[in-house]
Amino acid sequence: MHPSALVVADDLTGATDTGHEFAARGLRTLVSTFDASTTDAGSQTDVRVVDTDSRYADPTDAAVRVERVISDGDAGFVYKKVDSTLRGNLVAEVDAAVNATGADVALVAPASPRNGRTTVEGYHLVDGVPVSETDAGNDPDKPVETSHLPTRFAPSSFPVVRLPVNRVAAGAAAVAADLEATAAEGRTVVVADASNERHLDAVASGGARADCSVVYVGSAGLARYVETPPPAADGPPSVPGRERSVLCVVGSTNPATVEQIRALPDASVVSLDVETAVESPATASDDAAADCEARLKRSGLAALVSAPDPDAPNRAAEAGRRLGLDGAEVRARVGEALAGTVERLWRGGESEDDGGGNAADGSSPESLFVTGGAVAADVFDALDARGVLLTGESVEEGIPLGRVAGGVADGTPVVTKAGAFGSSGAIRKCAARLGGRDDFE
Predict the structure, then answer these.
(1) Cα–Cα distance between 376 and 345 in angstroms, integer?
(2) Which CATH class is domain 5-223?
C-alpha cells in the first residue's frame, strides 16, 4: 500500500509541524528527508511528508526536487507546504508542484492564525506586522522583500489571481465557484486572504468542492482543514510519559528561541564555541560532547546552544572572515559542529534500543529536542535517521512530538521546533514532556 497523501516541504521543522496536523487526525504520518530511503516505512503510512531541504537552494534545483518527489509517487492527494513567513523558493516550488500534479489551480493560503500569521487584503502579516518588516525580511540568505502575496507570486509562469476575504468569508460554496471560474480560464495560482481559522476552513472546503483539480499550498494552518482519505495504517505511535534524559540542540538564532534559552536552567546550558566551530567543527564537537555528557549524567538535561548571547553570530562571522568564508559557509560549519556533537553522544554510547526510546545501557541520550530546520536536517543525517514518525501530540501549537525513524537513534522520542515558534518557556516545556520531569518546567 502506498501512502494516501504526500506533503512536500522545504525544511524539516516545517515538515514536522505540518505533518502533525495529519497525525493529530489519527493518520500514521512519516516525515522523511529528501535522500532517505522510505520504502519500508512508507508502505505502512497514511501520509508521507518529504523535506526537500530546498528553502535556500538554487531555485532551479528546488523545482527539480519538488517535481521528483511528486513524480516518484502515486499519492492521491498532494499538499505543498510553504513557509508561513514566505521565505524560500515559493514561486519555483509552487510552479513545480502545479506542473508535476497537472493541477488546474494552485490554491495558496500560507496563513496560520493560531501562530499569528494572517493574510489581509493580499498582505501577509506576522502578529499584525507586514512580513517583510519582520525577521523574515532580514533573512541572511533570502530576505522576504514584499509582504504583498500577489506581488510575491508575480514571477510565476502562471497567472496570479487573488481570492479576496469577502469571497472567503462567504463560505466554501463561494470559494468553489470562484476556483471553477478561474480554472476555466486556464491553469492559475490563486492566493487567498485568511485572517482566522474559519477562513482557512472555507478555503480548504472550497477546494475540495470545486469541480477542478487543486493542489493545496500552505503552512500548517491550511493543512489542519484539508480533506484526506480515511486512515488505512495502524495509526501514530505513542510516547508514554516517564523519566528520560534529554538532549536539546538549539541551532536557531531567532529572537523567540533566544528568549526561550533564557528560561532553561543555567546549569543545563552548553554554549558551543562558535569561533572554534568555524575554524574546526570536529574540535568544537569533541568539546561540546564532553560537556553535554557531563550534564546528562549529572541532571539528565543538556542544552547545546549555538547562540547563547546576542554577539555569538558576530563572533562566528568574524571567525569566518579571517578564514575567507562567507555567511553560508559559516552557518554550515556551525551546523556541522552541532550535528557532530549529537553523533558523538549517540555513537559513543551506541546500543540496542529497548523499544521505549532509550538505550538499554543508558549511555546514549534517551530523548532529543531540536530547533532550527537546517540544524534538524544535519542532526538527523548524522544519526542516519530516515525521518520522524509523528505521534499526533504537540507540546505547544506547532511543536510536535514524534519518534526517530531509523538509524542509531531509532525509536527515540523527539520534538522539533521552528525557530520562530513557541512561548518563552517552550523549550523548557519540551524538555519536561520528553524527560517526564516536573523540575524541568
Answers:
(1) 16
(2) alpha beta
pLDDT digits (tens, 9 = 90+) for 206-221: 999 999 999 999 999 9
Q: Which three cell numbers stand for residue 421?
A: 515558534
What is the distance, to the nearest Å, from the Cα of residue 299 to the centroid of all Cα atoms in its chain? 29
Residues 6 or more apart from 83 whose CB is under 8 A from it? 10, 11, 14, 55, 90, 110, 136, 219
Structural contact between residues 247 and 369, judged by C-beta atoms closer than 8 angstroms? yes
C-alpha cell at 310: 546576542
Domains of the chain, by residue range, sit at 5-223, 246-440
Q: Mind listing the pLDDT tens digit for each residue in 328-351?
A: 899 999 999 999 999 999 987 543
Task: Fill in the amino acid letter for 380.
Answer: F
Residue for cell digits 532529543?
368
Superfamily of domain 246-440: Four-carbon acid sugar kinase, nucleotide binding domain (3.40.980.20)
CA distances from 169 to 55, 113, 245, 409 (A): 32, 15, 48, 46
CB neighbourhood size of 262 (10 A): 13
Cα 400 to chain center, whole Å?
10
Instruction: Give the span between the Cα atoms of 87 and 289, in whole angstroms.
Output: 33
User: In the sheet where 123-126 sits, what is the strand order?
Assistant: 117-120, 123-126, 129-130
Phi, psi for residue 112 in degrees, rounded to 5: -145, 80
Q: Which amino acid is at 242?
A: R
